[in-house]
Amino acid sequence: MATAFLSTANSFLPSPLSPSTSSSCSSSSSSSSSLTPALVYLNNQNVKRRRTLCKAFNESPPPSPALTKRGFSLCFITSLVFAGNSCSNASAAILEADDDDELLEKVKRDRKKRLERQGVISSSDEEKGYLQELVYKLSKIGQAIENNDLSTASTVLGGSTDTDWVKKANLAFSKLSSSPEEKTQVETFNSSLATLISSVSKNDVESSKLAFVVSASAFEKWTTLTGLVGQLKGL
Question: pTM value?
Answer without folding.
Answer: 0.55
